[in-house]
Amino acid sequence: MKPEVSIPEWMTQKEEYTPRKDSDRFIEKSMLSVLGVLSKMRNNGSIGAGGAGASVFMAFSLYMIVLSAASQNMFFNGCLFAGLLAWFCFMPEKTLRNTFLTALTASLISAVIMIPAVFMGNPQSMVRIALKVFFSVGLLGGLANSFPWNEITSGLRFFHVPDIFVFTLDITLKYIFTLCEISQNILISLKLRSVGKNPRKDRSMSGVLGVTFLKSREMADEMYDAMMCRGFDGEYKRPKKFRFRKQDVIILILAVAAAFLFVYTNHNNAVLM
Q1: Of 108, 110, 102, 86, whose CA–CA distance to 138 is shortest?
Q2: Where are the domains of the chain?
Q3: Is the dihedral of CA 88, 91, 93, 95 positive or negative?
Q4: Which of 110, 98, 112 is closest to 134 using CA atoms?
Q5: What is d(CA 172, CA 178) in angstroms, rounded to the nearest whole number?
Q6: The predicted structure's pLDDT at residue 134
Q7: For residues 273 and 270, what is the distance between their CA atoms, to the nearest angstrom?
Q8: Exposed / middle / buried, residue 118 (Cβ in 10 Å: 0-12, 13-18, 19+)
Q9: What pTM, to 2 d.p., does this model score?
Q10: N or C: the chain end with fewer CB closer than 10 Å?
Q11: 11-58 per-position pLDDT tens digit
Q12: How far apart are CA 141 and CA 116, in angstroms?
């Protein structure tokens, strides 16, 4: 006959624990920041650029930025600005908001820097520089949001950019996305395990950064071993044949029209402002 087992009295007593109130704004803000980066990278390349290839649009963007920087005619820069705004009209809301706010911020910063030119009797310089900065940043922002990163790196290789630069850019972009996901999971687990009041939240931040750093070192070693096993020699191969699509004709027409407008407005001093 088995002996009877009695439950200790302290186990039968009801225990109530009410943790002190604490603010989770640190963890919530960190999670929102990480989620913002992830959402931007997930939405990258979701709108397209009128069907144009990445290499063609990259060359067109650089070409238009050079024309804008070299022009001293406000009418020409105004036409470029109007064309950029027309392209913005075809963007989705989120992509438009990110691209427009980035370009507007850069333009306002350049305008603030050029405020002394107003007091020196040359206010047109401030307007001209701010307009050029808005156009350049907006065009590059549209490029970044119109194509996925693999097409952008492929376009760089088409222009014979060194392999080490393309490799560094490609791996950096991929690891930013991966490390953001790791940081997000760590922050979620930290929030679930946080009980009571924690007056030293800076220690939590150092712990998240430490775990993320160790995970990045581990992933770097694994990536190196995987590249060695697959025979990767650091060379990015570009397509041997360049496929010229119908949508690229529009880009070429715009480039030729911009060149004629640049020559007409700058060499004939037409419509000066």
Answers
A1: 102
A2: 52-147+246-273, 161-190+212-233
A3: negative
A4: 110
A5: 10
A6: 92
A7: 9
A8: middle
A9: 0.66
A10: N
A11: 777 777 666 665 556 666 666 666 666 566 555 555 455 455 777 888
A12: 28
pLDDT digit string, tens, across residues 158-213: 777 777 787 887 787 777 777 777 777 777 777 776 666 666 665 666 777 777 78
The mean pLDDT of 116-120, rounded to a whole number, is 82
Q: Which amino acid is at 32?
A: L
Burial 139-163 (b: 16+ CB within 10 A, else e): bbbbbbbbbebebbbbbbbbeeeee
Which is nearest to 94 in space by CA: 36, 11, 152?
36
**Quick one: pLDDT at residue 201?**
61
CA–CA separation, 24 and 29 (whole Å)? 9
Of 167, 169, 205, 160, give the one whose Cα is nearest residue 186: 205
Q: What is the DSSP string of 130-150?
A: HHHHHHHHHHHHHHHHHS-HH
